[in-house]
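Go through this chain.

——
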Amino acid sequence: MGLITNIRTGLKLKNSYLVFEVIKKISNWPIYFLDFFSLIWGKYIVYNMRNGLKFLVRAKTCDRGVVTAVCIADEYRINDLSLPKNSIVIDIGANIGTFSVCIAKMAGKVFSYEPVTENYQMLLKNIELNMFNDVTNAFNLAVSGKNGKLKIYLSEINPGQHSICNVGNKYEEVESIALKDVFDSNNIKQCDLLKIDTEGSEYDILYNLPDEYYKKIKRIYLEHHNVNIFLPKNIHNNHNHNYLKIFLEKRGFNVFMQDNYIFANNNIAYEIQ
């Protein structure tokens, strides 16, 4: 999740409606508020959702914000989705697996990609915790515009904000795979939902995907980030949500934007409410 999203979801706790939603959706909700006020002593906690899902999170970190955004505030609009039993979902930037686990409850197969080692280990634990090993394939890889190696700069504040765009002292060198090869290596003929949250890499990923592959994608849900400020001035100013919206529309998508999210649909018969 981006910094703005984490701030926004944190501030929403002041809203009585969100507090009600936390209580409504998390059975052990007192732990959530103890964590919010940094009153948890252990390193890890588990949120038990009333829908049967469980999420292992790192206490006193922004993991709570990710659970809030995906499960409580439903910012990816999972509750509005209707997927066929044999549906294929690709989760790029899976982080600790919150979205992957939520969508695995309704999908046929989920392919989850997370490059940072610590987040990837949390992803595996949450898949195992919810017994979705048969549904979810997890890969310790970055997805980018091409195959190779990348430096992921590590945020000391937010483990969901590691990025290739922000330069810092700490980084992890990771293997990267192009989105085209995600489709090819997994023999994916049609992707019912492509979710992307990559802290600025979404442009590199999508702009380098051959046009014919867009015909295989029914929906794209992504969190967008303005990374033009990190680019050299001589590079075309196309790393922003407005250009990305036009780019997707030219490839046959109906695009709806809400806050920091883009919801794009490649099926005229389907409407995002």
Summary: The two ends are 23 Å apart (CA to CA). The CA atoms of residues 24 and 201 lie 35 Å apart. The first strand starts at residue 44 and ends at 48.
